[in-house]
Amino acid sequence: MKIIFKSILLLFFCFVKGNAQQVLSLEDAVKIALANNYEIKIAKNDLKIDQTNVSAGNAGMLPKATASITQNNNLQNLSQTRTDGTTTSLDNAKSNSLNYGVGLDWTIFDGFKMFAKKEQLQELQKLGESQLRMTVITKISDVQTAYYDLVQQQQQLAALDSTIVISNQRVNLAKNRFTIGKASKLEVLNAQVDINTDKVAVLRQQELYKNSKIALNQLLARDAQIDFKVVSDFTMDRKLEYAELKALAEKQNPQIEALIISKKVAELELKQVKSGRYPTLKVNTGYNFAENESSLGFTTQSSARGLNYGFSASLNLFDGFVQKRNEKISSIQIENSAIQIEQQNLALNSQLATSYQTYLTNLELIDLEEKNEAIAKQNLDITLDKFHIGTITTLEFRTAQLNYVNAKVRYSDAQFQAKLSEIALKELAGAIQF
After folding, report:
1. What is the CATH number of the domain that holds 391?
2. Which of 314, 335, 365 finishes a domain?
3. Residues 249, 273 contacting (CB under 8 angstroms)
4. 100 found inside a domain
């Protein structure tokens, strides 16, 4: 009864410990990253700035109204000689003037520059949206990569844990055989050395697993010490088609999209530069008040108030070929934007073709390594049975054991590499779900 009670208690504590670690799904990890990641937050704020800049006032379409006030005071020794020869003088004569009012200036035509500016601001907002999407896709790709790296680390840790169990059986069996005189002390020592080697590998893997958790927590912008588990298996998408991915990439790849918008911005910049060839027309109006006081003179006090209005027009006739030079530079910038689009399209197609071939190869490797693992497991079971009855050597048993562990590790790595290829393809196509 004591043994049963202790066993139940042990199972209970193991259950509690196992459930203390929350299983973090990939969907939850992506949601946390979208809400917390610092680079995504910065990109969102940059987009808000671009959205705020899109306004008629920022494009120069609205009038500007100003209020002003000016006061001047003088204290002087004055002397005046009139035309009739009389002279008047006054020491410390005071005089002051006060002017205040409101004015309005409005550029009503600037060669269509304001309209090009407004459209450019709208394109910059689209560029900000594209850059935010690019940041989000990149971060989700990083989260998925880190998440499935943890899945791989977790699988490899389980494989090493299983070899510890087998090595323990080997040590116990070697001790029993030594006790009854069917094995030498050397066999026991070899078994103990091998299990210690396995324990070292487990410790190294545990360290790597914990460090990978910290890296994922950093991507999620949360406390690095939060403990969690990930799912135990890979979910592979085996239905990716190259033609479909290429079509999606040409349509919605965020880098291509950003370059196309940048070219549009450069074209609108050229429109603004060309506006310098047209005249600029401005209208102005205002209402002003003026008051003046003087201690000496024909008029000791005066005041005025009233409306003023008018217009001004200007046309650049010659500026040392600055206008021509600026237009040429803007045209070259448009040409560079077009070249960058062609360059990025070529690079995208090359990356897509290479990644797709790697994806296909990795899918084949998954099937091959899965078969190898099954064969290695069957070989280990047979070897273990033979080892129990003493028909094979410890070296043969150890070889079968290591072959099985290596087969499990290779199978896990093959799945991880295939998943990386899948993530890379979807990132290039702009098809990562979020």
Report:
1. 1.20.1600.10
2. 314
3. no
4. yes
Res 6: pLDDT: 40
Q: What per-residue confidence (pLDDT) applies to 434?
A: 60
Residue 259 lies in a domain: yes
Assess contact for 59 and 123: CB atoms under 8 A.
Answer: no
Of the candidates 78, 232, 96, 209, the residue with the CA atom closest to the CA atom of residue 153: 209
Span of 47-51, 159-163, 258-262 with lowest mean pLDDT = 159-163
Q: CA–CA separation, 396 vs 387, rounded Å?
A: 9
Residue 107 has pLDDT above 80, yes or no: yes
pLDDT at 292: 84
CA dist 389 to 143, 183, 291, 393, Å?
50, 12, 120, 11
Q: Give the number of domains in the chain.
A: 2
Does one domain contain both 143 and 261? yes
Is 86 in the same domain as 149? no
Same domain, 134 and 197: yes
Rounded-to-integer distance, Cα 150 and Cα 26, Å: 11
CA 237, 238, 239, 244 torsion-angle sign: positive
CA distances from 396 to 159, 382, 390, 431 (A): 20, 11, 11, 49
| CATH number of the domain within which 301 lies | 2.20.200
Report the Cα 56 to chain-centroid distance in Å. Answer: 31
Q: In terms of domains, do 304 and 366 share one?
A: no
Range with lowest mean pLDDT among 2-16, 36-50, 198-212, 344-358: 2-16
CB 264 within 8 A of CB 127: no
Q: Is 279 helix (H, G, I), strand (E, B) or coil?
A: coil
The parent domain of residue 301 ranges over 68-109+284-314
Read off the pLDDT of residues 279-333 as tens digits, 9 standing for 90 and up.
Answer: 999 999 999 999 888 776 666 788 889 999 999 999 999 999 999 999 999 999 9
